[in-house]
Amino acid sequence: MRRIAHVIVKEFRQVLRDKPMLAIIFLVPIVQLFLLAFAITTEVKHIKLQVVDLDRSSVSREVVRTFAHTDRFNLVGYTTDLREVRQKMRSWQTQMALVIPPGFGGQLRRNLKPQLQVVIDGVDGNTAGVSMGYARGILTEFGVDYAKQHWGPANLGVIPEQSASQGSTADLSVSQSSASQLPPGQIVQQLTQRSVQFQPASIQFRPATMEERMWYNPDLSTQQFMIPAIVVILLTILPMMLSAMSLVKEKEIGTLEQLMVTPLKRLELLVGKLIPFLILSYVELSIVMTVAILFFKIPMNGSYVLLAFLALLYLFTTLGLGIFISTVGRSQQQAMFIAWFFMVFMIMLGGFFIPIENMPSAIQKLTYLNPMRYSIQIVRDIFQKGSSLRFLAKDVIPMAVFGFLIFTFSVVKFQKRVK
Amino acid sequence: MVEARTFRVALGAANRTSGRANGGTLAGRASDRGLAGAAIRAFAGILGSRAGNASRASNPTRGRILAIARKEFFHIIYDFRTLLIIFMMPVLQLIIFGYALNMEIQRVDMAVVDFSRSTESRKLVEEFSGSKFFRPFYYQEPVSGLDDLFKSRRARAAMVIPADFAPKLRASPNAPVQFLIDASDANAATFVRMYCTQVLFNYNEDRGIKTLIPFDVRTAILFNPNLKSSYFFVPGIIAMILVMISCLLTSITITREKETGTMEQILVSPVRPHEIILGKVLPYVALAFADASVVVFMGLVVFRVPFEGSFLLLVALTTLYIITALSLGLTISTRVRTQQVAMMFAQVATVLPTIMLSGLVFPIASMPKLLQYVTYIIPARYYLLIVRGIFLKGSQLVHLLEPTLFLAVMALVLLITSVRRFSMNLER
């Protein structure tokens, strides 16, 4: 016991003496937290929009204004040449173009169903898909508003289809009276298409509408989702890197042999080396949690005790990985690269910013081998949903199994290596 | 013919060098690995023979640079594990980014609480099961149990159809249906909401209700009409790999010489500081190009990413980017003493920002203003525009003038400061 304490003291001194290392341990996580928390947004904002207004009517200007009003679009310029749009996209100066054809306003007034065109740079598929959705949404809203304003509120943007015309006589009378409120173009069009009387939104046709409740995260904040996961990532990087590097360093400069000839037992050496990192990890966890809760105002709905306990379980995995790397790597550089390789794999396939459900099923099965998959889910659920152990069991059990296996395997491998 | 001869000459040179000091055993070891070994031996031989020729042709600078390059090359080959990781990493990332990165969610599990139990409500549920977005299942227990359902993640959304749904569909202005969505993943929740709106819209349309929009909207998608994410990420990964190798590896290799004390040994030799730098950097440039070629090849063959632009322009601007990244690596190596700090620093200062802040994954325009200004000092930001533009849009130099200029200025400033600091450090 005394011997373990000596190793702990030695290890602490070694870490605390190395000023740049200390800065890296304590400053870097904070920097990373801020960087990641602000940079990771899957939201799409400020899409560079170019307007090709060939109509120049009051309506077309109104359309453009609705786009200029949101922070989703940034109006970058007007042009009359469609070829210029392509050139501008090649030089990344525009991402989307709204093409209003000549005669748009006039056709709209006569209700001839004119066309609008939206040209999108598809290189970034995700952004393009989202901006297409935005543009459609804005244009639909504009269209409904236009219909309301110009054709009276009686329609409210909802009309029945012509084919469903089993209306009673009472319906017919209603339809005639409200038909006068409809724009003439509509009626002409319908009459020419089929000689059926127009029916307004009648008693049989009431729309089902949506009433939504966003649970756990009503403001749909990305940070609330990402920051708990960043906590896990820091809990992975620090213990894994520190333990791997510190063990390899002793090996590289030959002090490991010196420690071996002392009466210190191998297990004692390992325990003595790991405890300081465990403590450092907890210190870091509390710093990051404090910043997350006080600065980013991330609600913590679950139990702190549960989180601390499960963090300990997870630390077995990451410290175990660190020991494993130290047995595989010969030099610090190698250890660093191997650790880095593990990290990229774990982060990419851990559901950190790529949702696991969206992956192809072969890769999804691969993610079950990734301990970070479980820990990210657990920490997110504790923060956001306040889940108790009962609900987390299906993640906690595999995580604990992984921790146990990796830790024992690495310790055994380390013991053999050292002999 | 000529190639075969060069190869033989190279092999001969390799055999000749293998007698000499350090490289010999390594080349021998490498040759055990079959074809790869032969290639390595040939390359080492070329370096060796060139060095020999050059020194014979009384060009001592070139000879010394190549000698250092050869030494560094053997360092790289010797560290087989690192080399493996350097080549595995891009391939792994390519596969993950190419196949797995997909922000749109599908097949959402949805609990249905049907209080209405009418033909209308059944049709609504059918509409949901008919869409590819949802997997609805009936949930008989009380609504208060939905919280448990979300917590155990058996459902991501729930639809509550009120008891008066059917009569309201006939009489009220509208018949509300309640949707409870697990919004812990905000992005996914947005998609779920969008899908719900879509399905409800279809349901209303099936019943003969149409939303009236007085115009049609047509969309045209340029350059990547199927919105494939692999087209976007494959060229992007080149930017990341080049930074990783040119900046991270280079900064480590110089600090390693400092840490182990071999830098002094090199300094007392007649090699000049700028020759050391060039010699040390050359193999990494070759490595970076090799790695980038692997990605380009896989991208073109496996992912079938189109290549619209000029290959020459890509090579030229890639070289510019590599110079920028190398200078950054040199700057780091002049400021730190140990490998550990250099690695940590290079990772935090270059690799992480390249992944997070360059626009590789997350759009810069969506970041807060302050962070957007930070992105201006990240070389990958400009290179991404260049490489994606050339690959997918067929952009020419005219279109890429702005990023090229930024990159050139950055390279110049970094190169001058790093070389000056480096020589100062060495001569002291």
Characterization of this structure:
The complex is a heterodimer of chains A (419) and B (428). Chain A has 16 helices and six strands. Chain A has 419 residues and is α/β, with parallel strands linked by helices. Chain A folds into two domains: 2-40 and 222-418, no CATH class; 47-158, abc type-2 transporter like fold (3-Layer(aba) Sandwich), CATH 3.40.1710.10. Chain A has a four-stranded mixed β-sheet, sandwiched between helices. In chain A, helix 9 packs antiparallel against helix 11 (266-295) and helix 9 (222-253) packs parallel to helix 12 (304-328). Residues 154-204 of chain A have low confidence and may be disordered. Chain B folds into three domains: 1-78, no CATH class; 108-206, 3-Layer(aba) Sandwich (abc type-2 transporter like fold); 229-427, no CATH class. Helix content of chain B is 69%, strand content 8%. Chain B is built from 17 helices and six strands. Chain B has a four-stranded mixed β-sheet with strand order 2-1-3-4. Residues 1-33 and 51-57 of chain B have low confidence and may be disordered. The interface between A and B is large, with 120 and 119 residues.
Main-sheet strand order of chain B equals 2-1-3-4
Q: Radius of gyration of chain A from the CA trace? A: 32 Å
Rounded Rg of chain B:
30 Å
Tally of helical segments of chain B: 17
Compute the average pLDDT of chain A: 79
Share of β-strand residues of chain B: 5-15%
- Helix residue percentage of chain A: 55-70%
Measured distance between first and last alpha carbons of chain A: 22 Å
Query: Regarding quaternary structure, how should these chains be classified?
Result: heterodimer
Class computed from helices, strands and strand pairing of chain B: alpha/beta
